[in-house]
Each structure stands twice: as C-alpha cells, then as structure tokens.
Design a protein that fits this description.
With about 350 residues, the protein is α/β, with parallel strands linked by helices. The chain contains 14 helices and ten strands. Helix content is about 45%, strand content about 15%. Keywords: Periplasm, Signal.
Length: about 350
C-alpha cells in the first residue's frame, strides 16, 4: 500500500514534466504586419490542430535574415516568411533547404507562379500582389506605363523611390514601355531623371498618396494592390490601370531553415497556411491576396486584392537573381540621375 502510494505520487510529479517534454514547438519568423489577425486565423487554429506550440518572431527582412545567418550552425527558426529575393539570398547563403512539396496536400492548388518562384525548389509562394498605376480617370487616360512621362501628365505624377518595394518593379515596367528593359534599369532611371523637376514627389510611403490625390496634387502613381483600398474611398474618380505592357508586383514565400529539427512540423504548418480555408480567411480580411487558386472571394474582397487566374498569369515579376545582383547598381544610378 505504502509502495503503491509512493509510486502514485512519483508518477503524478513526473506527468507534467513528461507532458511538457512531449509538447512540440515550432518557431516561425514572419513580418510584423497584421499579427493579431494572423494569430486568430492561422496560429491558434494550427496549434489546436497539431497539439503543438507556435513561437512567433517578427521583424523586418534584414533583421530576420541576419538572425538566421547568426544561428546557421544551430538554427532557432524552423520556418520563415520572406520575399522572393530574400529567399534566393538565403538559398545562396546556405540557410534554407529544399521544400518537399510531396508532403504538401495543398501544393497542387497553388497558381503556377507560386509553386516554385525562384526555380530552385527552395520556396513556395503564399501571397503575391500586383503593382500598377492608380490614376484619376477624369483627368487622364493610361494605356501604357510610358504615359506617366507624357508632358501633359508628368507634372501630376508621384513615383516610388528606388529604395522602396514598389520602386524597382515600377522602373522595370517603365523600361519595358520605353524599350529600355535592361537589368540595370539605366534607361527608365535616366528617363525619370530628365523629368525629375516635373514629378511631384518620389514617394517612400504609399500612405501619403491618398491625401495627395484627394487634394489634386497628383493624378497618378504606381502602387501595390495592397494600397488600393484607400483610393477607393476617395470622393474623386480613381481607376486601376491595366497598361498594355502588363502589371508587375511582388511575392512573399515560405522557406524551411536548413538544419531545423522540426521540418516535418514546419511542412504541416506550411500546408495549413496554403489551405483553401486559411487563404480564404486571410483574403476576406484583406490581409493577403491568395496564392491558392481554389479560393473564392466576395466581390468586395476581390476588388481590393490581387485575385484570379488571369491576374496571376499576367504578372511580370523581376527575377530574384536580377534583383539581388543589381540592387547596388540601381541605387547608384538613381542617386546619380535622380538624386537622394
């Protein structure tokens, strides 16, 4: 009896420790954007499904990649959400592993553009966005990216600074329109430089554009689709351009840390994030445009996001290798021709 009691007490004392030891933990590195919504729509539902714990680290891309590099020999992060170009940089630095897409039940549902964005098997796209021109439809007509530099329009244009996410893609499309589409973006930067005194501003934050358009200080600006909602609330007519050269944009991807001991759990989480249900919830909250082709959205959500197969096929994204290999050159040319 006494021995049984002692054994019972010992077992009771060890049980919490055993449970704690058995609990699986997945550490993810993500953008700080909309974390309350991500917690409610992605993190907590996944924890409930897997019986595991998610540790979420946030920060900008530079900080998060630096941490992955610093912990290369003993990884802390298991999965990260980064841009296409940052994924390629991480691959070149030996920080990430190939993604075993055979373990992703939702992989086949993705738009082709998101299945292997860098062509190396090291990342999977979870959201993308279009970049085009928001413009005052009562003041101008936009058929081409080159229309931004027309004499009658250029004095009412805001253009993204080359240091912003929208800068290089917009320059890339302007270069296509001008017939000067070399990877160094020299042609479009020089063209902007010639008109720099006419352009209203080389913006760094898209939030300032809605006010400028409301005040009629600008008629047009290249923007990412994620910024479009603010323009739709203006009491002046604003349209989204579909230039003959097409639209550009960007994509965010999921990657697996090389050497992680939790890759199977990380793949489960990746698959959960890519599911039709999760992608639909994020899209309806206007958080992310869906990479899952089976997502069906309300008209209100669809109008504010980058949505649909035709849109996905039409996007002309800057290849990551070109972005990585030319960033320094872009900045130098910009500073020489446009100024800081």
């Amino acid at each position: 009896m006494k021995k049984a009691l002692i054994a019972s007490v010992a077992l009771a004392a060890l049980s919490p420790l055993s449970a704690a030891a058995a609990e699986r933990t997945l550490t993810i590195s993500v953008y700080a954007f909309a974390q309350d919504d991500f917690k409610a729509l992605v993190y907590e539902p996944f924890e409930a499904q897997c019986g595991c714990k998610l540790v979420v680290e946030t920060g900008n891309s530079v900080e998060r990649l630096a941490k992955m590099e610093a912990n290369k020999t003993s990884p802390v992060v298991d999965l990260a959400a980064v841009s296409m170009a940052d994924a390629l940089a991480a691959a070149r630095a030996g920080l990430i592993d190939k993604v075993d897409t055979a373990k992703l039940s939702n992989f086949a549902k993705l738009y082709d553009i998101a299945k292997d964005p860098n062509g190396d098997g090291m990342s999977v796209g979870y959201t993308f966005y279009a970049t085009s021109i928001a413009y005052r439809s009562d003041k101008m007509k936009v058929d081409s990216w080159a229309d931004l530099l027309k004499p009658e329009y250029v004095g009412h244009v805001a253009f993204p600074n080359v240091t912003t996410n929208q800068g290089p893609p917009a320059l890339y499309m302007l270069g296509l329109a001008l017939g000067k589409d070399t990877p160094d973006l020299k042609g479009p930067i020089e063209a902007l430089g010639e008109k720099k005194d006419d352009i209203v501003t080389f913006y760094e934050k898209s939030s300032q554009l809605v006010h400028l358009m409301q005040q009629e200080e600008i008629w047009a600006a290249p923007i990412g689709r994620f910024s479009w909602a603010g323009f739709t609330k203006l009491d002046v007519p604003v349209a989204w351009a579909t230039p003959k050269e097409g639209q550009t944009g960007g994509m965010n991807v999921l990657v697996l840390t090389k050497g992680s001991k939790n890759q199977d759990l990380a793949l489960q989480f990746m698959d959960f994030w890519l599911s039709t249900e999760t992608q639909t919830k994020l899209a309806e909250k206007l958080i992310d445009s869906p990479a899952n082709s089976e997502v069906k959205l309300s008209e209100a959500a669809a109008n504010n996001l980058t949505y649909g197969e035709q849109t996905a096929k039409s996007l002309k994204l800057i290849p990551s290798a070109i972005a990585l290999d030319n960033r320094a050159g872009w900045l130098k040319t910009w500073n020489d021709k446009v100024g800081q």
